C-alpha cells in the first residue's frame, strides 16, 4: 500500500511553457492520452481511494480511472499570483533568485513555497493511516508533489523543490508506514512510452 501521487496530463499552457498555478486549464489532446495511459498503469490497484486537486486538469486526469474522486484542496498547485499565465522565460532573474533564496517569498497575490509545504505535509500526514490500509492516489501538480516527496524524505521542501524535475503525467510513490514515510519511486514515466510529446 502506498500514497501514489500523479501529476496531471498536459495542457496547452504546459506545452507553451507558461506558469499556470491556479489558472483552470483543461487537458489538451496529448494530456487526454496521457490520462488514459495513467489509468492503464494504475488499473491493478485494489479499491484505491482517489483524490484530486480542485483544478480541472487534475480532475480530468483522475476521471480516466473511472472511480469516485474526492476533491482535496490542499493538493492544488502553488498560487503564482500575478505571475500566473506568464512564460517561465519571462520571469525576471531577480524574482527567480529571491524565490530560490527565500522560502517565505510570495509573488504578488500568490503563495509562498513554505505555505505550500505546510499544507501538503498536513495532508500527507492525515492520509498515512488510510494509505497503510489501501492505496491512496492523489492527482495533483508539480509543486505539491515535490512538497510530498520532501515530506517523505524528511528534508527542507522549499530548498529541495528547486533540485527536482517532475515530468508531465508522471507517477510518484511513497510508503506511508506510521512515522516512517519513504520514497519508493519518483517521476516514473514508463507508462507514457510511445505517446509522443
Largest beta-sheet characterization: 6 strands, mixed
Which ranges are low-confidence, i.e. pLDDT below 50, for 5 or more consecutive residues? none
The structural class is: alpha/beta
Count of structural domains: 1
Oligomer: single chain
CATH topology: Rossmann fold
Distance N terminus to C terminus?
31 Å
Number of helices: 7
Strand content: 15-25%
Instruction: Strand order, main sheet: write it out.
Output: 3-2-4-1-5-6
Q: CATH H-level name... which superfamily?
A: Phosphoglycerate mutase-like
Overview of this protein structure:
39% of the residues are buried. The chain has 197 residues and is of the alpha/beta class. The chain starts with a strand and ends in a 9-residue tail after the last strand. Helix 2 (29-41) packs across helix 3 and helix 5 packs across helix 6 (142-153). A six-stranded mixed beta sheet has the order 3-2-4-1-5-6. It has one domain (3-190): Phosphoglycerate mutase-like (Rossmann fold, 3-Layer(aba) Sandwich), CATH 3.40.50. A hairpin with a 2-residue loop joins strand 5 and strand 6. It contains seven helices and six strands, in the order βααβαβααβααββ.
Summarize the helices and strands and which ones pair or pack.
Elements: E1 3-7, H1 12-16, H2 29-41, E2 49-52, H3 56-63, E3 70-71, H4 93-101, H5 113-133, E4 136-140, H6 142-153, H7 157-161, E5 171-177, E6 180-188
Parallel strand pairs: 1-4, 2-3, 2-4
Antiparallel strand pairs: 1-5, 5-6
Helix pairs in contact: 2-3, 5-6
Amino acid at each position: 500500500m502506498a500514497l501514489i501521487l500523479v501529476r496531471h496530463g498536459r495542457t496547452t499552457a504546459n506545452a507553451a511553457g507558461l506558469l499556470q498555478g491556479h489558472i483552470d486549464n483543461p487537458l489538451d489532446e496529448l494530456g487526454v492520452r496521457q490520462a488514459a495511459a495513467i489509468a492503464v498503469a494504475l488499473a491493478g490497484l485494489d479499491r484505491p481511494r482517489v483524490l484530486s486537486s480542485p483544478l480541472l486538469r487534475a480532475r480530468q486526469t483522475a476521471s480516466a480511472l473511472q472511480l469516485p474522486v474526492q476533491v482535496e484542496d490542499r493538493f492544488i498547485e502553488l498560487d503564482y499570483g500575478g505571475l500566473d499565465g506568464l512564460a517561465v522565460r519571462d520571469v525576471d532573474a531577480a524574482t527567480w533568485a529571491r524565490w530560490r533564496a527565500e522560502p517565505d517569498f510570495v509573488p504578488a497575490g500568490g503563495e509562498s513555497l513554505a505555505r505550500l509545504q505546510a499544507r501538503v505535509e498536513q495532508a500527507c500526514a492525515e492520509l498515512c493511516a488510510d494509505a497503510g490500509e489501501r492505496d491512496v492516489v492523489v492527482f495533483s501538480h508539480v509543486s505539491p508533489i515535490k512538497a510530498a516527496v520532501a515530506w517523505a524524505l524528511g528534508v527542507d521542501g522549499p530548498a529541495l523543490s528547486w533540485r527536482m524535475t517532475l515530468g508531465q503525467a508522471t507517477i510518484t510513490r511513497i510508503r506511508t508506514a506510521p512515522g516512517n514515510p519513504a520514497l519508493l519511486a519518483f517521476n516514473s514515466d514508463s507508462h507514457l512510452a510511445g505517446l509522443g510529446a
